[in-house]
Design brief:
By secondary structure, this protein is mainly α. It has nine helices and no strands.
């Protein structure tokens, strides 16, 4: 039951991040949405920061376990990167609340450790992409690191654009076009 309630709290936070604009998510609002008291909230999590941190860890684990799975395939480096790129976008669409965490928009100075974790997340994602691109450097227009920067910048921009549209314009509706542009800027014919 304790694990279930913890999960409900995390799902409630993700839901609040989806539906709230720039309003701050307070523990009182989160407790009400979760159907628990604030005291019960603190029995499951030592702080509001730890709730955000655990929610972010779910996002981090999901994306990097998929990256690891894709890296182990026999696909070309271009196909591996495409699969990671598209997975990220689909994951974002299915988990809108994470967009606000990945953009750091939902985080206050109290959640600095989560902001740092998000920054590290994008650095690790860029490193993963760079390593995959380095598997076949002769197919690249520029160095793997520069290409990886471009791809991660496109993903971060997609996160921001999705939030700006108030989650109405699904990134998957234009992700193939963005990917085609990324390919033109990254891979030789």
């Amino acid at each position: 039951m304790k694990g279930d309630r913890k999960q409900i709290i995390l799902q409630s936070l993700a839901g609040l991040l989806e539906e709230r604009n720039l309003s701050k998510v307070t523990t009182a609002i989160l407790a009400k949405k979760s159907g628990v008291t604030e005291a019960a909230l603190y029995r499951h999590f030592p702080s509001k920061r730890s709730i955000f941190s655990e929610l972010f860890r779910f996002c981090d684990d999901a994306i990097f376990s998929k990256c690891s799975e894709i890296r182990k395939t026999d696909l070309s480096s271009e196909e591996k990167i495409k699969n990671i790129f598209l997975f990220f976008i689909i994951f974002l669409e299915k988990n809108k609340g994470f967009a606000r965490i990945l953009s750091r928009e939902a985080l206050s100075s109290d959640e600095q450790n989560v902001t740092d974790a998000v920054n590290q997340f994008f650095e690790r994602l860029e490193l993963n992409i760079k390593q995959i691109l380095a598997e076949d450097p002769n197919k690249l227009i520029v160095q793997p690191g520069i290409s990886a920067q471009l791809i991660v910048t496109l993903l971060e921009g997609t996160v921001s654009r999705y939030i700006r549209s108030k989650f109405k314009e699904a990134p998957s509706s234009y992700s193939e076009n963005i990917w085609k542009l990324a390919v033109l800027a990254t891979f030789k014919d």
